[in-house]
Amino acid sequence: MSPRFSESADNALPLYAVSPATLPSVLDRLTPIAAAFARSQPFGAGPGELLMLPGEDGKVAGALAGLGPENLRERQRFTLAAVVPRLPEGPWRLEGDLDDAATMEAALGWLLESYRFDRYRTQSVPLASLVAPEGVDAARVEAIAAGECLTRDLINIPANDMGPAELESAANALAVEFGATMTVTGADDLLENNFPLIHTVGRAATEARGPRLIDMSWGDSGPTLTLVGKGVCFDTGGLDIKPAASMGLMKKDMGGAATVLGLARMIMQTGTKVRLRVLIPAVENAIASDAFRPGDILPSRKGLTVEINNTDAEGRLVLADALALADETPPDLMVSMATLTGAARVAVGPDLAPFYATTDSDASALAIGAVAAADPVWRLPYHAPYEAMIEPGIADLDNAPKGGMAGSITAALFLRRFVTETPRYMHFDIYGWNPATAPGRPKGGVGQGARALFEALPQMLDL
Question: Where in this chain does the record put each Cytosol aminopeptidase domain (predicted)?
C-alpha cells in the first residue's frame, strides 16, 4: 500500500527542521523546558541528527531534525527523511523556516522513506506519519509517491514471481484502476503481427514465461505521449551467459517497464491532460535449444536487419520493435526507459540517470524538472560520428559493437534508428537500483527519471 499523509492533524507533534544557522531562533520559540533540554544536549543540527523534546509531563512533545549546513545540502537528497524511522509512531507536523521547494522535498521524502517492501515478510514496524504541510499539493505528492512505490515493488519482486505474465498482470491492474484500455500480443501472435525481435529474444523461455507486447492507452484529450519500457523480467545473458556476479541483480532488468508504469500511475492518478500510451515488450532472456545465437542476423519490425554480436545486448532488440510500432503513429513526445548498459553506470554511477534528447528544449525542461523533483539526471549526446560503430557491414545494424567504448551512446543511437517519424524522442539509460540505503531511498529497486519527467511534462507538452 502506498504511503499517504496523515488524515488527521489532531495531536500531531511538531518536528522542527533546523540547520546550524536557524537552530538558535528555533530554540527561542520552544517552551522553556524543551529549550533548556535542547541546549544541554550535543545537538548541532547536522544532517540526519534527531533530538526528542520533552514536555512538562516528561513525555515526548516534539523533536528537532537536523538539515545540516547550507553548503552541504546538495550532497544529500531528502535529508529530513533520515529521521523518520527513528520517530515515535503517530502523526507529526512539519515546523521550521523552510521555503516552498524545501517543504515539498521534505514532504515527498517522508512518504518515500515510509516505503517498505514487505511482500515476503510476516512482520512490519509501524512508522510515524506526516500531516500534509500547508501549501503542499497533498494529492499530487501522494500520486508521485504511489508511482515511485509501484516502480520499487515491481523491481524488488524476484523473477520467479515477476515474469512476463506477472508484469502483464501488473499493467492490467493499473489499467483497470484508471479506466485505461490494454491489449496484449502474446507469444503465438508476435511473428504474425511483425514483432520478430521481441519473439526471438523471448522464445527460449518456457511457455508460461513466453514473450509478449503490452500496449496500454489512457486519456481522450491533450497532447500525445508514448512511454516505452524495457521489460526483460530476467536476463541470463542468453548464450553469451553472464557470470554469476553479473546475473545476481537481473530481476531488475525490467526496471524500464517498472519505471514507465510508475510514471503512468502519476499521470493517471493526477488526471494529467494527455493521451498516454504505454508499450512494454515483456520477455525473459533464457537459455534453451532455440535461443538466438551470436552471429545470427535478425529482421525487425522497421525492416532493418540486426547482426547479433552479443546475446546479452537483448534489451535494445525488444525495444526496437516496440519503438517501431510507436513510431507508426508519431506522438508529440516519445520516451523510452531501460536498464540498458553497464557503460552508463561506469560513466555516471548509480545515482544519476543519463538521458538522450533529440531537442534541446526538452532537455532543458527536464533539467529544471529534475531539480524540482530531487530526481537527478544527466544529458549524454546522440553523437553522430559514432553511428559507424553500429553498422557492421553484413547487416544494417550491430547490436553490440566491439571495442567497449561509448556503450551507452551506441545503444541510444541504435534505438534512435527505429524512431524516424517522431521528431521529439528521449531515451533514459537507468540503473533502477539503489545499492545502499539513503534517506528516502532504501536499498533495492528505485525509480529514476520518472519524477523529473513528470515535473517537466507541463512545459514539454504545454499543459
Answer: 310-317
Q: For domain 13-136, which architecture applies?
A: 3-Layer(aba) Sandwich (3.40)
Cell matching residue 160: 520467479
Q: Are 373 and 104 in contact (CB under 8 A)?
A: no
201: cell is 529474444
- Give the class (CATH, top level) of 158-460: alpha beta
pTM of this prediction?
A: 0.97
Q: Do 13-136 and 158-460 fold alike per CATH?
A: no
**Every domain of the chain and the residues it spans:** 13-136, 158-460
Q: 3-class secondary structure for 164-193?
A: HHHHHHHHHHHHHHHCCEEEEECHHHCCCC
Single-letter amino acid, residue 37:
F
Rounded to an integer, what distance in angstroms lies between the CA atom of residue 299 and that of residue 320?
11
Query: Which DSSP string corresponds to 206-271?
Result: -GGG--EEEEEEE-SSS-EEEEEE-EEEEE--TTSPPPHHHHTTGGGGGHHHHHHHHHHHHHHHTT
Phi, psi (degrees; rounded to nearest 5) at 50: -135, 135
> 552508463: which residue's cell?
344
- Strand, helix or coil for residue 155: helix
Q: Which residues are catalytic?
A: 242, 316
Count Cβ atoms below 10 Å from residue 71 Cβ, excluding itself: 7
Band (8; pLDDT cuts 50, 70, 90): confident
Q: How far is CA 216 from CA 174, 228, 261, 329, 440, in A?
A: 10, 10, 10, 14, 30
- Could you report the per-residue pLDDT of 41-86, keeping only the tens digit for each? 999 999 999 999 999 898 999 999 999 998 877 788 999 999 999 9
